[in-house]
Amino acid sequence: MVEKLISFSLRNRFLVLLIAAGIFAFGIYSVKSSKIDAIPDLSENQVIVFTEWMGRSPQIIEDQVTYPLVTNLQGIPKVKYVRANSMFGMSFIYIIFEDNVDVYWARSRVLERLSTVGSSLPEGVTPTMGPDGTGVGHVLWYTLEAPGMDLGEQRAVQDWYIKFALQNVQGVSEIASFGGFQKQYQISVDPNKLLYYKVSISDVMRAVKSNNNEAGGRKFEMSGIGYIIKTTGYLKSIQEMENLSIRTQNSIPVRIKDVATVQMSGESRLGIFDYNGEGESVGGIVVLRYGENADEVIRKVKAKMTEVSKGLPEGMKFNIVYDRGELIEESISSIKSTLIEEMVVVSLIVIVFLFHWRSAVSIIIQIPITIAASFIVLNAFDISSNIMSLTGIALAIGVIVDNGIIMAENAYKNLAIRQEELADLRKKGAENA
Questions:
Q1: How far does Cα 60 stand from its chain's mean position?
Q2: DSSP notation for 13-50
Q3: Domains in the chain and their CATH numbers?
Q4: Which residues pair with 286 in a beta bridge?
Q5: Strand partners of residue 261
Q6: CA-CA distances (angstroms) from residue 369 to 2, 179, 341, 362?
Q7: What residues pair up with 227 in beta bridges, in sequence order?
Q8: How far apart, in whole angstroms, are the C-alpha atoms of residue 185 and residue 240?
Q9: Residues 253-282: what's their mean pLDDT?
Q10: SS3 of 131, please?
Q11: CA 182 to mean position of chain CA atoms
């Protein structure tokens, strides 16, 4: 088989050169279109289910949330195993699928199963799937620099303006906000006043829920004009909430301000984000979507940040604290220079030791063609160009030329033997004549 292939190649040299040129051209295209990242994604093929039930102990979370979810999610097809973690007020479940399973097929199967487990969970508890990102998906961290602006206002700008804008960038799975205070209305109830007015906490909650609502009416026509009737009941200020009526006693309404204090404050926090010891900061984390090109997504996010900056409050700006794009550029630049150095050194060594330019050219030309062809294989298996894969190519340059050197030396040796045999035959022929 090998002899036939060599014989065919020798008889069709132009065709072989044309195929090699085509592989090289396709390899150059593959190099330009290859996904670029600094580190390989070795994380498992998993889907995360997050459930929040604040105020409950880990044991209650384990018994009433985690256990029912785990038992229902274990029967999903192509699942290797299910992990779970229960903590105060929160439950995390990690469904690990087989490596050859498409991540979005896996997410759809989990979503189908979650739609059937609602009846086994406590009232008001809703499990949520995590973003379609991986364990190495945190590609960019940023904070907001806004001198003179309090943390609550910064967090509001992050949650209601910046987050929605950056999430529209193609390839971004999630913008995870951190730091600051999430504004909320807080009603601090006085137990003694509740007892005095003979009302309960559930009465206070019911009064807030029933009055913070809109109700639709109907449409009617009068004098040829159509009118839509509705009632607007959303609460807009602390004063409106304080004046809500809980119940009526002896024709006198008992308001919320009679039994409680209403204030604007921040949600309770379990930690803070401090930047360089200079105080608290507000910012976000850009999470890369599964299978996306990290380098390209980072460039698009930075371009979107420039656009978003035009609408920020005066004096506010972005401060990038972690950028994998810089690590990607440094890694790729280092590997690229190493590849060029190795190619030059190997080429010089081949020329010096063989000392035959035709043999040397036939070996050296294999290096760029083989490297270009390796990127075709990387793209075919959806492997990104990272430190591991490019280092493997760099280490394989010596192996690439070894085969060529052996074949060239063998061919040279056989040709020399053949020439000696021909010379002997000519000599014997001349003697016989």
A1: 32
A2: HHHHHHHHHHHHHHHHHHHHHS-B-SS------EEEEE
A3: 2-33+328-422 (1.20.1640.10), 35-130 (3.30.70.1430), 133-182+267-315 (3.30.70.1320), 184-266 (3.30.2090.10)
A4: 140, 175
A5: 188
A6: 21, 51, 17, 11
A7: 220
A8: 12
A9: 85
A10: coil
A11: 25
- What Å distances lie between residue 196 and 192, 252, 253, 258, CA to CA? 6, 14, 14, 10
DSSP assignment of 157-220: HIIIIIHHHHHTSTTEEEEEEESS--EEEEEEE-HHHHHHHT--HHHHHHHHHHHS--EEEEEE
Q: Does the pLDDT value for residue 395 go beyond 80?
A: no
Question: Do 162 and 156 form a contact (C-beta atoms < 8 A)?
Answer: no
Which amino acid would we find at residue 430?
A: A
Q: What is the pLDDT of residue 414?
A: 77
Query: Which of 22-31, 374-383, 412-421 is the least confident region?
Result: 412-421
Q: Specify the 3-state DSSP secondary structure of 381.
A: coil
- Position 355 scores a pLDDT of 72
Per-residue pLDDT at 210 exceeds 80: yes
Average pLDDT over residues 326-331: 82
Contact of 390 with 374, CB cutoff 8 Å:
no
212 by Cβ neighbours in 10 Å (0-12 / 13-18 / 19+) ranks as middle
Q: Between β-strands 317-323 and 215-222, what pairing exists: parallel, antiparallel or unpaired? A: unpaired
- Is pLDDT of 370 > 70? yes
Number of Cβ atoms within 10 Å of the Cβ of 162: 26
Confidence of residue 431 (pLDDT cuts 50, 70, 90): low
Q: What is the mean pLDDT of residues 177-202?
A: 88
- Write out pLDDT tens, residues 330-341: 877 777 787 788
pTM: 0.77
| DSSP classification of residue 270 | S
Question: Which residues fall within 8 angstroms of residue 401, CB to CB, at 6 or more apart?
Answer: 346, 350, 363, 364, 366, 367
Crossing angle for the helix pair 357-364 and 324-354, to the nearest 10 degrees: 160
